[in-house]
Batch of 2 targets.
Target 1
Amino acid sequence: MDCDKYLELMSAALDGELTAEERRALDSHLAVCPECAALFRTLSENTKAMRELDCEVPADLKGRIMSSLPRQETPARQGKVIPWKRWVPVAAAACLVLVVSLLPMDKFLPSGGNSAPMSSAESAGVDGSVRTDAAYGEVANSTAEAPQQPTSADNSGMSSEYVVVGTPESADPGEAVSCSFENQRQIRVGYSDDLVAEARIVGSTESLAAYLSQFGTDSWTEQGTPVPNAELETLKELCTEEFFQTRRLLCVVVVSGSGSNRYELAPQGLYRDSVTILATIPEVGTCDMAAWLLVAEVDTLFDDGDTLEIEFVR
Amino acid sequence: LDEQKLITLAQQGDQSAFEQLLERYEKPVYHQALRLTGNPEDAADVTQEVFIKVWRSLPSFRRESGFSTWLHRLTDNAAIDLIRREKKRRGDSSLDDEEGGALPPADPAPTPQQTVEQKELQQAVADGLAQLSEEHRQVLVMREINGLSYEEIGQALDLSPGTVKSRLARARISLAKILQKNRELF
């Protein structure tokens, strides 16, 4: 007798969610199957016991909460013009990329090909959800201490590396957190062995300065001549204390096995504890390791220092 | 005052309206957190975190879900985050705990009129709940402790009501197996 199909009916019966027809089917089965009848009795007793569980709330909890209320946030602003639009004179460009610091070290991707600046990221060809793809190596690893080497090894266990350590919250359950994706930036930063790939919320000028310091100030090395990374300097200038009063910055570092791979924040891809990155992998890539900083504005429901899980789709 | 009015007032910064909402929901939130974390101190921390977040975020609350559904979602998030942080701190390798993973036993508060048998079963169930996987514990706590409907649980956890239904069934079977195993052990 196929008893498995009655398990869900038993459970629904405990919740009073059976139709009359389902009820009849379950009853006739229980009448002829002693094992299921015994299981149903056990489940009923467990359910009854669980529903009778009680607890005593600590007497001082309410007082603790009321005395620690912070200032209430103002509602999320709608459609406010953000000064970042001044960043890039090219209106069509959804992202701007500086090509810097090309380190020829990727032995797994086809060599040759120029490390031409990425154009505005397109997500064409992005389909199916994958956490990562061997073709572009470990694109990011939010907890790794050591730098990621490009490898075609099995990445199936990677998701467990993306640990949620922050506690950001959406104000509105079931919905993506509002995010001005038109203001997202892709800044290519110099790849370095010390770079830790992660998605982090930056919420103050001090945090931003500290955060950006990991990229150095002279990462433009295309012609072998170090110059300050102007994009990072601009970022610091624009994100003033006033800015952080109403916004937070989502900063995602993506470490990639090729300078030709393109990444962008997926529209509607921001949740309370994760962010989705669209990855576009060309047929022929460059043979360098590369790192990108993706930045976008998010609202103040996130806290400074929150870390988000990164999910890749392509 | 009815709840919608209290919410509107609290959204405008009225602390006494918020306090009334807190009085209504303190216990269900705390109880949910207690059954998820299995620990009274953690449950108190989670409750405090949740209500502070509620206060801060109320102005942006758009009532697309019920207020209590929102609260239970926030509580679930905060409790699961706390469990994961604790786990990480302890250096556990697995993020998604296996069924039967060890957590501190929960502590049901018995009421005087309960029979010894009922108390024993309640204690066993509370202990078993703490041994369930996160996924199963979440739905079972929302259903049995908070009395949420399939639809509300679905809203809180971003699941379809059908998934909630089948997950609850699996959770109940898992719990029964855990209780059976615990009985054989002791």
Note: Chain B has a mean pLDDT of 86.
Target 2
Amino acid sequence: MSTGRRLGSELLKGTTPLLVLAVIREGELYGYEIAQRIRERSGGAFAPSEGSLYPALHALEAEGALEATWRPSDRGPRRRYYRLTTKGAGLLAAREREWASFVGVVGRFAGTPSES
Amino acid sequence: MTDRPVAADYLATVAARLPLPAELRADVLAELADHVADSIAALEAEGLDRDRAERETLARLGRPEALAQDLIRAHQTRRRLFAGIGGGVYAAGGAWITGIIFGFSFATIATIVALAVGALLQSAFGVQVALQTSDQAVNTAIYGVVSWFAAFLAARAAVRASATRSRRPIPELARWWALLGTTLLALWVLVGLTMPLNPPAVVVECAIPFAFAAGALVGIERPGPRVRGVHVVAALAVVLVPVVALGAFVTHGAPSPVVIESGGALPNGMPDMHFEVVGLQATIEAPGGGGWWSTSDGGIQTDASPASAIDAGGWRDLRFEAWVTRSVGTEPVVVAVLDTTHRSPFAVVPAVREGDRYLGTFHFERYRGVGPWMIFFTGVAPDGRRYRLGGGGGGNSTFRGTVWDWLTAPAIP
């Protein structure tokens, strides 16, 4: 799926932790894989967000939402794999509720986008 | 990892703006380098040439300065800063205790070595080495040197623990720890640490804050040697066993410790005590000033009685005087006599009547440079001259207080 559009970097920055947590919920991943998953699932709309990916990963790790371990990868060099913690799962659930509420409120003003 | 110049420059720019502990920074850069390599490989697989793939990868990461700034914010949080401060204080406390234990262990070994060498010199060459002292300030100096160890180790532990926990670079934290720790220790030494003092002990104590600063700043980025229990046991065995064996060997059959006495007769009779410096002896002598005892607050108290007989003689301006003495004679019989270079008492307290006696309380421990002393009970007779009514009891005191007390205390003239 491709949106054919790229979202504003400020909007993306605020949602990066939610996207990261949601992607890692699927299993242990390393940085580039996380970026790829986000890119694929957003249809390229979140492409410019890679610069904010690692700061977000490290901040979530500092919060205790993620656990990171260095392990050899299937393809050679060791990589840093991230895993969702129990605290991270709780945080993700809270962020999802916030996001749903946010979308609902903004939707009342902005309306539903029309298909073009 | 990528070895392309552009990507390498990008990563070098990030590295230069990433003030994190070296190990952590290496991890972060390795992770970024992996990302760059993966991204370039993926874009090349999509059909881009190497240069375009590299440029696209770096463009997606954004400006290296901004990335570094965001990474710093992610790592150097306020919570980690507080954790670093707490961890540093905790580590410093533990290292201080370790330093004190090791310091006293080494001080004990050094003392045994000194005693062994002294005994060896005495038994082999007849050389008398004075290894015993009644000056409590020597213990302060030893404690001060032990505290150098403790302060040095505490500073290193504090800097390293806080750097690890707060994720800040060691040099940055070392400066703060040096400033803060040195200031606090200087205040503690100056106004908080009450100990027996003499000039060497004051110098040793004043060096404690500098030992902390040295611990925080000197070679702090170099990893210290990894000391394991086996190393400690081996070191103690190598040092302690021969030293104890040597000490036991040379002290076996050594002469008994020298007894230093104050008072008593010299073989050629009593020396001149020079009591005339204090004043003429009154015809009626009170037994005051001959004995003394310590008070609970560190003072020296003496008395004279019976007060009624003293009062009946018309004496006025009654007081106790403390005079500096010096030792004469040869061991084992040494006698304390008045030091005639002092023409006045170094301390005077009024005699306070309590029941049928007069009391006087001195605080010799508050006089800088105090040493051996002798107390006299004096008074002014009806003829207007001051006489010696009694006394002659003596002892030895050491200044006790903080360094500030030492600096502001009255000195023995």
Note: Residues 35 and 73 of chain A are 17 Å apart (CA to CA).
